[in-house]
Fold this protein.
Amino acid sequence: MAYEVSIFLENKIGHFERITHVLKEAQINIRSMAINDTANGWGILNLIVNEPQKAFEKLSAKGISVALRPVIALEMRDEAGGLDDLLMQVAQAGVNFNNAVGRIIQETQTAILILNIEDYQESIDKLSKQGVKILDDQTVYGKS
Amino acid sequence: MTKHFWQEEFETLGKKDLQKLQVERLNATITNASRSSFYSKLFGKKNIQPGAITDIAQIAELPFTTKQDLRNHFPYGFLTLPKKDIIRLHSSSGTTGNPTVIFHNRHDLNSWANLMARSLFCAGVRDTDVFQNICGYGLFTGGLGFQYGIETLGALSIPAGAGNSLRQIKLMRDYGTTAAHAIPSYLGRLYEVFEAEGLDPKKDTQLKTLVIGAEPHTDGQRKRIEEMFGVKAYNSFGLSEMNGPGVAFECTYQNGLHIWEDAYVVEIVNPDTLQAVPDGEYGELVMTTLDRQAMPLIRYRTRDITRILPGQCECGRTHRRIDRITGRTDDMFIIKGCNVFPMQIEGVLMKIPEVGSDYMITLETMNGVDEMVVEVEVRNDWFQGDIRRLDKLSKTITHQIRDEVLAKPIVKLVEAGSIPKSEGKAIRVTDNRKNGLN
């Protein structure tokens, strides 16, 4: 099971840097990031990192509100229409997701789509049945 | 003959006669108050005899009454009459702790309505006016207090209630409103809505008088309101413990608020020594009711800071004038016309396990409206990374604070550890308001 690192973040100068600095100190590599902003001056920062458990521990130790949440990583073709085709399959599988992050994997000429979902095992079953390729954790986290 | 006063026989009483009336009424008030369980015990302990006052200065020998006394003896400890004689109560907000509640019998409500009518008359309002009361009705005294006063005066009342600016403007235009009452910060907002509608209150309404109060404001802010609306704006002062509005009011000379000394004994004391300060010096306003039967209050510490303005007013009224309120001797603040104590916010937050109990309140003017921003820390051990859960928490806190203090806050969730911990007297409230009028 792969995890994303979710962090409570106020929309204030210097707050994002506080997070990235902790990760830099711990030599943790950020593979992808997304910020879910609200209109209320705060948001959630979602990170995929090479060592999520370590990131969680280091950030927690600094008193930062952080949580690990399971994600599913799907293989996607790195070409025009790749995301559209994949999303069609996800929809046909009847899987709903809260947020998504995409990135390419250079060495294999493919891309991955990372979904935050609620019913983890059920969604994996549905997606597998639909013929979607689910990537292993190491592919999600990348080479350290 | 043009009438210059609502009750000339009271409003222009010479100093000696006014003080004689005060002595009579104070003695009667002490006798009456002794029927309540609170004052009978207090006076018994201090050996205070009814009828003992011969000079109004002797009031300084009587003990003070505080808001805490009112709370401690909630709800009926101050009642002098059986409940069947009481016909209305007004109460402060609050779901935690005891609210401040004031009871009135029919005499009290008539007396209040008369003082309110006298106040409006003194600000130039007449029975020919159309008066729109832009103010919340209900437990808040500004609604019904003004309503009965307008009716007693004989003007046409529009009990518009608070908010809904478009409807307020429509009422003003449909019925030719000439006078209105609102909190000053709301008038800034209302003016913006006029502008947004392409209307100019100076040309598109018949407004000539505005009564503003229930919220601290400066003379500069009053002048700004007068310019925006093309009116004269008069300062109104009252507090629910002394009925509500109609305690002190500006006359058309606009140089301080006449405080009705036939109905109240007014003292200004140094809040530390509790000794009287000379006229002209600032101190805490202490008031005694002289014409209230159901729930008289003696030497009530209002916590409002003001001063007596020395000298006579040109209008001919002999009742002394107080200056506008410059502050408080406690940490209460007023937002959207609601009195708020930081302890009330703290009480709400302590019952919500998802957040820490440290908080910060910032009063800000946003888009012409005064807002109460409450910053609360999210607890690390509760955080699960779910934005919807946080949104829901934010809404819960908003509703619970609103239920407690009646004013809707803007709740901001902040990172754990970002609010200074409460050690001793941490400053929890920062006031950056401009009242939308600067």
Notes: The beta strands of chain A are 2-10, 30-37, 42-49, 66-77, 99-105, 110-116. The first helix of chain A runs from residue 15 to 25.
